[in-house]
Write a structure and sequence with these properties.
There is one protein chain. The chain is an alpha+beta fold and 124 residues long. 32% of the residues lie in helices and 30% in strands. The chain has 4 helices and 5 strands, in the order H-E-H-H-E-E-E-E-H. Strands 1, 2, 3, 4 and 5 form a 5-stranded antiparallel β-sheet that branches. A hairpin with a 5-residue loop joins strand 4 and strand 5 (101-112). The radius of gyration is 24 Å and the shape is rod-shaped. The relative contact order is 0.14.
Length: 124
């Protein structure tokens, strides 16, 4: 009987020491979306030669603009699903001095944990 009690005590102690990590998937967490929500249909409408007004009509206001002028706009969308990895998409639109699009770039950081994204930002 003492062996049975010590096994039960050991199991209970292990569960208490592990915290609630084994029920983490059962706990509700809302999706966290930040930035400009950009659909593929919006991206498909972007073309070199469009004006700033056309870009605002298609994409909305940019999240960021270049600190050296209003010639580069950034549309950033960062998503953290309930129990998944952080993903971030960035669209960079560059204009000439007349306000006409001369370059469109898309970058995507997907399937990274918060720690991995912090490490990447620290190394840049």
């Amino acid at each position: 009987m003492p062996l049975y009690r010590s096994i039960i005590t050991l199991v209970v102690a292990a569960l208490l020491l592990s915290g609630c990590s084994f029920v983490d998937r059962w706990v509700y967490r809302p999706d966290i979306n930040q930035g400009n929500y950009v659909t593929q249909e919006q991206v498909d409408q972007l073309k070199v030669g469009q004006t700033k007004e056309q870009i605002v009509y298609i994409m909305g206001s940019p999240m960021l603009t270049s600190v050296f002028g209003d010639d580069v706009w950034y549309y950033v969308f960062r998503e953290l699903p309930q129990h998944g990895y952080v993903s971030q998409k960035t669209y960079t639109i560059t204009f000439d001095k007349k306000g006409i699009v001369i370059d469109i770039k898309a970058s995507s950081d997907t399937s990274k944990t918060l720690e991995q994204m912090d490490e990447q930002e620290g190394s840049e």
